[in-house]
Write a structure and sequence with these properties.
The structure is a single chain. The chain is of the alpha+beta class. 25% of the residues lie in helices and 27% in strands. The strands form four sheets. Strands 1, 2, 3, 4, 5, 6, 14 and 16 form an eight-stranded mixed sheet that branches. Helix 5 runs antiparallel to helix 6. The radius of gyration is 18 Å and the shape is globular. The protein binds 2-oxoglutaric acid (AKG). 2-oxoglutaric acid (AKG) binds next to strand 6, strand 15 and strand 16.
Length: 275
């Protein structure tokens, strides 16, 4: 198995795996180690069936049914489908489902149909972004928590004219919310990362709202600077695994043509913990 870094801070291409059979235990250990080292792994030409996709996820942990993405249907609910034909896309920076108590530790995304150009995905290293903050900003964030909520998605859909005010009200009433440390420590590597994102993070707990908005805006601008980012140009069959404990990602909108992805995500065993 060859692991070739794609940027100085995150991303590596993994080659030399035989996808026509389940990975051996040594190979899986190698993938796991590469994921801890590089946060995002790109594997070309995997072409896994939905069953194989879930089975690989299960070897990393508990595979969830996503809170709101459509899926392959009865018996295959754990394979979510992001299909541009039905308008499903994830075109805001986020870390997966941080409104949950135990958000996914990792996600496995498999390209089924890719437009001739555009539709790339970007990941940013929240570990490198944290590391690059000033000592005084690190001290300010130390011990702080932030509220995350699902209803942000409904608000965005309402603003874009895709959801009525009544349905927005329902989404807010039924919101799923959770507070997490703003700086989390990776449970396996011990490395500290920023753990806030523009899609789900609502506010920093215990500070005035204007201050919270301003600090979050600054953190998002900082964390999405290109020096922390890997941008992936997809080919059909590409299979990408990422570590949600130290990254955010975005699917770039604005492409023409059909884009269809299968995704599986694996819940963390524990709640995010501050370092
Ligand atoms: O479609 C993509 O490239 C990204 C998907 C995504 O954001 C997700 O699965 O959470």
């Amino acid at each position: 198995m060859d692991v070739v870094p794609l940027t100085p801070v995150l991303g590596a291409e993994v080659a030399g795996l035989d996808w026509s059979r389940p990975l051996g235990d040594d190979e899986l250990d190698g993938v796991h180690k590469a994921l801890l080292d590089h946060h995002v792994l790109v594997m070309r030409g995997a072409r896994l069936t939905p069953e194989e996709h879930v089975a690989l996820g299960e070897r990393l942990g508990e595979v969830e049914v996503h809170a709101f993405f459509p899926n392959l249907g009865p018996g295959q609910e754990r394979v979510s489908v992001l299909d541009s034909a039905d308008g499903t896309q994830a075109s805001m920076w986020h870390t997966d489902e941080t409104f949950l108590e135990r958000p996914p530790m990792g996600t496995l995304l498999h390209a089924q149909v890719i437009p001739p150009f555009g539709g790339d995905t970007c990941w940013t290293s929240m570990a490198a972004a944290y590391e690059a903050l000033s000592p005084s900003m690190k001290r300010y964030l130390d011990g702080m928590t932030a509220e995350h909520g699902l209803s942000r998605i409904a608000e965005m859909r309402h603003r874009a004219g895709h959801l009525s005010q009544e349905d927005l009200g329902k989404a807010i009433a039924e919101d799923r919310r959770c507070s997490h440390p703003v700086v989390r420590q990776h449970p396996e590597t011990g490395v500290r990362s920023l753990f806030v994102n523009p899609t789900y993070t609502r506010w920093l707990d215990g500070v005035p709202m204007d201050e919270s908005d301003a600090v979050l805006r600054m953190l998002f601008a900082h964390a999405t600077h290109e020096r922390f980012v890997y941008r992936h140009r997809w080919s059909e069959g590409d299979f990408v695994i990422w570590d949600n404990r130290c990254t955010m990602h975005i699917a770039l909108a604005g492409f023409e043509g059909h884009r269809r992805m299968h995704r599986v995500s694996v819940l963390d065993a524990e709640r995010p913990a501050a370092g």
